[in-house]
Amino acid sequence: MATILFGLLKNPSAMKTVTEEIRSTFASEDEITVASTSNLKYLDAVINEGIRLGPPSSVTVPRVVSAAGAMICGQWVPGNTLVGVNQYPAFRSPTNFSKPNQFIPERFLAGAGFDDNHDSFHPFLLGRHQCIGIRFAWAEMRLVLARMLYTYDISFDTQPSIKDWGEQQTFIFWQKDPINVRLRRRQM
Q: Family assignment (predicted)?
């Protein structure tokens, strides 16, 4: 969530677009529910872009190559070898995403003209190892962001010391600097 807010506050046009989408969709905060936020395309794009730039975990989830071995990215990998893909470099690789270090939610909108490799973007993993909480996480992010952006005008209280969220330290989880924001209840 912090990465998403950071990206929105650093990109006023994205903040304006997602805020307008939310405020034009709902007449009151009471209308904002898990179900009613599931069709907000730009909000979903904003969340995906925030997750892409700041994946929740910095560790690689290992997998074991089958006993017979396998070709992976053109390289032979012997059987029973531990392999994994670190999300941070995969999600910020120019091989997978154009302008990879920029917050551009439009890359996740159909027909937006980006030639990005969305097959490389699986922040909740795939298959039997997919995060069991994926639906809950999406519901929570949509609901919290939609209610926050509907109710408040948000701005930086103080300018952050970093320009890119990825400049922060990471071990198993991110060692995040605080983002001081100002929330002003919007006039309706």
A: Belongs to the cytochrome P450 family.
Q: How many domains does the chain have?
A: 1
Residue 146's domain spans which residues? 2-185
Residue with tokens 């997750």, as numbered in its chain: 51
Q: Write the CATH number for 59.
A: 1.10.630.10
Residues 124 and 137 sit within 8 Å (Cβ to Cβ): yes
Q: What is the pTM of this model?
A: 0.88
73 annotated to a ligand binding site: no
